[in-house]
Structures are given as C-alpha cells and as structure tokens.
Amino acid sequence: MNSKKEEQIRLGKLKKIEKENINPYPSVSRREMHVRDARNSLDKSFWLAGKITAIRDHGKSKFADIKDESGKIQVYFKMDVLGNEKYQLVNLFDLGDYIEIHGEIFATHAGEITVKADDLAILTKSLSPLPTKWYGFKDTDLRYRNRFVDLQINEDVKKNLETKSNTISFLRNFMQKQGFIELETPTLQPIPGGAAAKPFITHYNILDSDFYLRVAPELYLKRLIVGGFEKVFEIGKVFRNEGFSRMHNPEFTIFEFYWTYKDYNFLMEFTEDLIHKTVLAIIGASKSTYQDNQIEFKPPYPRVSFIELLKKDSGIDIRNYRDFKSLKKEVKKRKIDLNFKEITVWSKLVDELYKKISRPKIIQPTFVIDHPIELSPLAKEKQNQPELAQRFQLTCGGGMEIVNAYSELNNPIEQEKRIREQSKMREAGWEESELLDSNFIEALKYGMPPTAGWGMGVDRFTMLLTNQHSIKEIIAFPALKPKK
C-alpha cells in the first residue's frame, strides 16, 4: 500500500480514537515490568507496555506481538474478556503503535508465552508505517537520514551502538581503576591544536572573535598536567573539517590520556594490556573478524620503524630525499599515484606516501614507531636520533589507525620553534599544520614533568569489534550533505 494512503488511514483511526474521548498520547504508563521478566512469570498478571510489531486476526479474537527493549511477547485479545468497547479499540491499532496491556501470563498449546489481555490502553498512535521487511531498508543514505527507522528495522544497527557505548564504559572504568581522573576541556577554542587537522570556524558574537571547534583536547589536557594533575583523561567529541570516507566523519569520539613520568615505550606495553582486555570484555575473545581477516589482539604486538616500513613497501628511503622537490620527483619516478594538488610540503608528502603504500598492508595489530620529527611537532625527539620522534601508532585491520601516542615535548623553547616551523608549512599550503598557541607555550614555561600522551579514535576501534566497513555504522547520526 502507498505510504501516503496508509498515513491517511491511520489519521482516520486517530480521529476515531479522539472521538471516543481517549487520549492517544497520554503522559503516564502503568507498566510494571519488562517483557523479559514477564515471560518468566507464568500464571501472574501484570501491566506490560511496548510497540506492536505484528497483528493477526483469529475470528472473534486477535493476536499481536509487542516488543520493548528487553524482548517480545504475544498478546491475546478476546472480545468476551475485554468487552466490546475495549475490543473495538484493538481494531484501531496499527503496527508501530505503542500500547499497554494488563493480563495473565500463560503458555499456549504450542508453547508460546502469551498475555491474555483483560485491560488495555493506547500510549502512542503511530502515523507513519515502517518500511516493509520484505523489501528491507537498504539505501544507506536513507538509513542514515532516518536512523530512528533504521534502528527499528535493522537490529544490528542497535547492537553496533550498544557495543560502542559498552566500549566507552569499559575504557572509562579501566582508566579510573588506574588512578586517572576524567576532566573536561573546552570544545570552543580560540586557537585549535593538538592534531594535524583543519578546524571548523564559528563566531563568538559577544566577544566579536572567531573561535574554533576543537580538533583535539590535547593542549588543554597538557595544561592540566602543568597545573599539577599526574593522570588525566577525557572521552569526548572532536571536530575536523575534512572529507568523507569510510574511515572519516567530521565529528567523532576521541579518548585521550596523559600520564606523567612515563614515556612512549611504557605506553606501548600499557596499550597492549588495555586493548587486549577491552576486546576480551566486549566480544568475549581475543580475536575479532574484520573484513574477512582474523585479527588477534593478544600481545605482544610487533614494533616496526616508520622509515624502514616505508622503504620496504615503496623502495624509497626518505632519509635520502630530505626536501619536498627531490622526494616528489622520486615518487613520480616510481609512478606512485598521489594528489599533488593538495600536497605542497615534505611532511605532508611523507605522510600521504605512508598512508598510500604501507598502512593498508597492516592487518594484525602493529606498532609503527619512530616517525620523522617533522611529522610530530608535539613529540619529544629520540635522544640519540634527534631526527626521529618518540612516537607510535597502533594500526591494524588493513590500515586502520587506532592509537596515536608519544613522549610529550615539554621544552617550551623547542616547542615554540617547532610550531613556528609549522606556520611556514601552513603558508606553503598545508592547512592542517599546527597553529601557534602562545598561551600553551606560556604554560610549558612554568614546567611540565616528563609525560606520555595517548589518543584513540573510539569509533574506529568499535568498527573493528563489530566488523563494520564504514564509520557511519558506529555513529548514531553521521554527518550527511543536507537535502535541498
């Protein structure tokens, strides 16, 4: 049936209900327990409530299925039990309506747990019919725009979101047991920093100033370290003005922590423990299936040099091509396809080369370590190799970066020098380079103890645990181009 025609029929039923002085949208329900609990309470009577998911005529009686968050149960409506007036209300019910029913729980001859309704009321009249399951709800754009329908039709969508919620809860509890404190940092920032990302800009009217949605909480969490906190973390939203892909949504959930008197070597061991225990807690095993690959999260994870990995996969030793012009020439010589319209500096070229050639080949959890210092302006350099950063990225699943971490640079003079170098890259066309935050430099001048910092994209991690190809399946309401 045409959905518009169906809506008109339902509107007609709504008017009939209102004509009987029945409120089709009452404020209060008499529900006494969830369906799951009622199913284990034979020969007892309760008020239950839920959404109608099926209706079946059976002569002078009707059967229906109602569903709440805990499960589904069959309801038996009989005229001589309900009385004519209440039974006529049943005739005005549709799929998707929310109702409450009172009655005794019994098992039919076929063993079906059922409520024999002796009283009922409507709680919400549904005016729009759900898409039929015969044809499904497959169009991804339509699903994302109407997630409220998607959740009702596709059970896996709800499970994905529940897995993300459970993952966040586990991570939060794990960190609190380690003695960390969770604090909030500003979402609106006068200067965005902490990640190589282009920010969203907004305007603060009363201050007549442009502000930015944060790209990372990093610089403010480190201010808290300067202020005297030794173990601090935050789980929250960050915003990056970047393109769409199966791995990217401009708004996503990040988990960052900072731990004083530790370095990136310590954090690699800590990461192995944290990731392994989280996977065990959420999926009940150390292995997960992701895109036809079995990923084993049981430690230890191999550690591979960023430069050596890139050399092995591309044949290019970037140490021999230390300027943009010579490296670009070598990349083109080897016929490696990169978008040079968007790549104008050496650091960006190295990063994109790695993402194109090496990262997609990483299936099992792997620490990619010791990046060129130019790619890590907030990280401390290696003591005997100052051209390298004390940094690692945990990558797996065919190139999915899960964790980025490093020993934090706490020398204010060197930090200011690095960020000023980043400013030159911005002038050369790299919009994602760091901006100079003078207040952050000022904080470092008061002294920040040796600190290791760590960040995880929670949505991507959940993709691995739920075997989802697109990050949009993990975000309840992903960003979409508005319809005109």
Describe this structure in words.
The model has no long low-confidence stretch (mean pLDDT 95). With 484 residues, the chain is of the alpha+beta class. The chain has two domains: 3-124, Beta Barrel (OB fold (Dihydrolipoamide Acetyltransferase, E2P)), CATH 2.40.50; 153-302 and 364-473, Bira Bifunctional Protein, Domain 2 (BirA Bifunctional Protein, domain 2), CATH 3.30.930. Helix 7 (155-177) crosses helix 15. The protein is 33% helix and 25% strand. An eight-stranded mixed beta sheet has the order 6-10-11-18-17-16-15-14, with helices on both faces. A five-stranded mixed beta barrel has the order 1-2-3-5-4. It contains 15 helices and 18 strands.
Structural class: alpha+beta
**Global shape:** elongated
- Provide the CATH top-level class of the largest domain: Alpha Beta
Assigned CATH architecture of the largest domain: 2-Layer Sandwich
Overall average residue pLDDT: 95
Beta-strand content bin = 15-25%
CATH superfamily of the largest domain: Bira Bifunctional Protein, Domain 2
Q: Which percent range fits the helix content? A: 25-40%
Distance between the termini: 28 Å
